[in-house]
């Protein structure tokens, strides 16, 4: 058989008939892979795919690839892989059966046939699908629908507690505000003078300033008392009620009644 | 159902698929000049009368439209729950406690101006209504709460609102809390509302 | 002409005004839940049968469209929307008849790798969507068709795919291995030669 002419008669959906040289070029671009090429060759046998001669198909494919090579066309690797596999299949089919080799050539041939059937089934299904009544091509929806509108309406939420507490806040805000400065623990100057005078009455000896301070755990109050007591001493010294003595800068300050 | 002839079906489909109203000539360009387009239009017009769709002529052009009495169906309202702003809650509270109350009075009580949007929101929510004008210079409009307000807040009447003493007892008039609230409030979203609306 | 009840008119108008096919629930959201939407749809479907406009169900959604036999009148000359490539048509068919299906499975049937663009084109058209990963090693992504696919190709559901029952009965939607097993052959260890086509 001459494998080069048959495929093209039935492959109208791939390429228009053309002169031999161009035809091959065009067709190689048009195939969707080796299985596609095989399917087209198989359909050229014009029998049900379940009855095709796999051997004849293999020979057609190999002849096709040989022709393409002769014309020095670029052939994608997967076509060559398929060609090698088909050459192997062909030899298995022709040679005496080797029971050691699994799977046998018949099974390989059957597999190929099943794959071709599946591809064929999907190709036909696709054609029927796209050939049907398609929306926007054969059937049309309304040209200018009014459209359905969703109007968003705010459902405002709040509760009674929010309401009354808000009112409380408003009222409290408008009440006159009284500012009260929190008391800090301090010893006033008057207090300190009074205290130092009273204590001096009992001590005639030189006494360190610190011993006049009240006993307290509060360091702030202690500092306040120290400062106030110092000022009190100065004031009393000015009035001539006490004498002060200090040996050196920052050394203890002593006091006694004048 | 009455069978339609093919020409009438063709006119029907053409008008349906058209993106704009079509004149008799426009239709004939599709369905073929052998068709009596006017007769077909008359037949369709009669067929669609009283249906959900009607065929109408406007300025010698024909188109299908949904029946006018069904327009309300084609708008679906979807509720989106949104929390009332602090400014709105305060305003609502003042109205509830002092109604009828004018805008200036609300502002005096709040100590902050209210934006126009705040009262609009409360009226949109259905809780506040205009309650007549006060017979003083300027005749300011006053506002009051509605029946819906009562039912929303689960109140039988306004007298169910806790009084000042109740609020005090509940600690809701505590000045320290108030000061904190104020601080929190300043950073919040209605700050801009307040300023935007000052002159409104 | 037969008079339509108001609920049926409402359903008719809603579908007519809609920009997208609507489900029964969608329609109920407009016409009200008290309406028996299914009954109304059945009545309208019968009413419009044989007219220039038909009411059709596509993947549980309903829309009006022009009757298919009037295509010659309405078909527009403008860009015969970019013709789908053979690869795209085949890939679409494989997805539709086998869904959910992985890329490797598509390639096994076609005996060739699919170029990236092919699936993109189908997804861009809105006909194909990713449909989750298969819980096998590699967790391949699978693909399936969409509601838009059904609308576009005029299918009520996937069961409406042309010839799907015959293909199923003939085992042509089963993988080759399954078919071999069915034929009483071992379908396991002959892999090497097949693999270049199957899982490339």
Oligomeric status: heterotrimer
Beta-strand proportion of chain A: 5-15%
Question: Mean pLDDT across all residues of chain B, rounded?
Answer: 81
Gross morphology of chain B is: rod-shaped
Number of strands of chain B: 6
The averaged pLDDT of chain A comes out at 79
The N- to C-terminal Cα distance of chain A equals 147 Å
Our count of helices of chain B gives 10
CATH topology of the largest domain in chain B: Arc Repressor Mutant, subunit A
| CATH homologous superfamily title of the largest domain in chain B | Winged helix-like DNA-binding domain superfamily/Winged helix DNA-binding domain
Helical stretch tally of chain A: 9
Element string of chain B (H = helix, E = strand):
HHHEEEHEHHEEHHHH
- Global structural class of chain A: mainly alpha
Classify the secondary structure makeup of chain B into a structural class: alpha+beta
| Name of the CATH first level of the largest domain in chain B | Mainly Alpha
How many beta-strand runs of chain A? 4
* Rg of chain B, Å, rounded: 30 Å
N- to C-terminal separation of chain B?
A: 62 Å
